[in-house]
Design goal:
Elements lengths: L1 E2 L15 H13 L4 E3 L3 E2 L7 H17 L5 E3 L3 E3 L8 H6 L8 E5 L9 H10 L3 E5 L5 H5 L5 H5 L3 E5 H5 L4 H12 L5 E3 L12 H7 L3 H17 L20
Parallel strand pairs: 1-2, 2-4, 3-5, 5-6, 6-7, 7-8, 8-9
């Protein structure tokens, strides 16, 4: 699997605090079946991570993983807050390209309140040839109330990244229901771990794959689409549904 959302870099946000914790997150990811992991530190008011800091920490963390014998490939990235994005120079935004691909950028969908700047931000990024990837919108009450509200943004070219814990139920019932609805509606394109620690707030990628009854869809969400992003290839078509509606396996 390829996981394009993590807080593995040490000491920059609310994820790993030390290199030792970064190593433990990486070890947990490999045990979960992840081969490539994007380091996507928060880029917002409380964690104003710079691209230079992110890039340096990706290098030093990768060195630490190699020294520990952990076969995990780290990729660059960042989780950019919508209200912080206008403060960044265009070159800085590209350096935060998801998985090291400057044609994609991961945007943090807020947990509360509808982001009024979303339409403008998506349009501006698309005009610059950048595809916005919306992180964990299923956690937002506005999306939970009306998942189809994301349809116009997907039509404009945005992608939706669900959190694995939402599919397993670890994120609560409303998030799980919204994630299911987004898959039903064809409005979800990736599943990612959003790991902040090796145990509490861990990735749960393997559990998420196990929760999706459609194996081809699970692979598309956790391998095919993220692989295309990392490699800079065209995004693969969504596989035909095995049944008329998306289902989650009973836990």
């Amino acid at each position: 699997m390829i996981d394009l959302h993590s807080h593995i870099l040490p000491g920059v946000d609310d994820g790993a605090r030390t290199v030792e914790e970064s190593v433990e997150i990486a070890r947990s990811a490999v045990e979960d079946g992840v081969e490539v992991l994007a380091a996507t530190p928060h880029v917002r008011d409380d964690y104003a991570t710079s691209a230079a800091t992110m890039e340096e920490l990706v290098r030093t963390t990768q060195d630490a993983l190699s020294a520990a014998g952990i076969p995990l490939e780290l990729r660059r990235g960042g989780e950019l807050a919508l209200d912080y994005l206008p403060r960044l120079e265009a070159e800085e935004v590209l350096r935060f390209g998801l998985g090291g691909n400057p044609a994609y950028v991961l945007l943090e969908f807020p947990y509360d309140g509808w982001p009024l700047s979303l339409e403008r931000t998506v349009a501006a990024l698309r005009a610059d040839g950048v595809t916005p990837v919306l992180a964990h919108p299923e956690r937002n009450p506005g999306v939970q109330a009306a998942p189809s509200r994301l349809a116009p943004f997907v039509s404009e070219g945005a992608l939706v990244q669900l959190t694995a814990g939402s599919l397993t139920g670890a994120g609560g019932g409303p998030a799980r229901k919204a994630a299911r609805a987004l898959l039903d509606l064809g409005l979800a394109h990736l599943v990612a771990g959003d790991a902040h620690a090796a145990r509490v707030r861990k990735a749960r990628m393997h559990e998420a794959v196990g929760a999706i009854a459609d194996d081809a869809l699970a692979r598309w969400l956790t391998h095919d689409v993220p692989r295309a992003i990392v490699d800079g290839d065209a995004l693969p078509e969504r596989p035909a549904a095995q049944s008329r509606r998306f289902r989650l396996r009973r836990q």
